[in-house]
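#onboarding

Welcome to the new folks! Below is a worked example of what a typical request in this channel looks like: someone posts a single protein sequence, and someone else replies with the predicted structure as tokens. Don't worry about understanding the tokens yet, we'll cover that in week two.

Example request:
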Amino acid sequence: MQLRDIQKLTWDNKISKGFNTTDLALEFALAHAELSEAFEAARKDPDHLGEELADTLLFLVSIAEMRGIDLDSAVEAKLAKNAARTYRRTDNGVLVKTDETLANERQS
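Example response:
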């Protein structure tokens, strides 16, 4: 299943069940709550982690639909951007973008 299909099915379900389709702040708060539940599942109940991650994804695609964003295309573009980035490791082991990556991102 494509992300585009998930976005449409999630939106259709929200409409058919009468869930929120207009309050963006509420959707962000609910997505945050689901991410917190995923965190707790990862720590205490790993068997339910997949379900909680799925809940988080469904709220994120709903937010995208509310704002008219084709999340499938946005994710593809972001993956391409990330693949083009280069990183270096600092003396304390932290990965940071190279000067070349930073310059390229300033130009675009």
